[in-house]
Amino acid sequence: MAVPKHKTSKSKRDKRRTHKKIGAPVVSTCPECGEAKLPHHACPECGEYNGKSAITPDEE
């Protein structure tokens, strides 16, 4: 079984992990109300999706 001969340094370990970060979420605007929403999701403000009423928005 393969065993490392030397300890991997923190620098070498962190360089290997540079591509595992999470990016910022993509946000689009709702064509009905103009609020920010996630793509392919119903708008949380007005409840519209693809020009139709999909959900009833929560009133607070």
Automatic annotation (TrEMBL):
Coiled coil: none
Annotated GO biological process: translation
Biased composition (Basic residues): 1-22
GO annotation, cellular component aspect: large ribosomal subunit
Molecular function terms from GO: structural constituent of ribosome
HAMAP family tied to this protein: Ribosomal_bL32
Protein name per its UniProtKB record: Large ribosomal subunit protein bL32
Organism: Desulfosarcina ovata subsp. sediminis
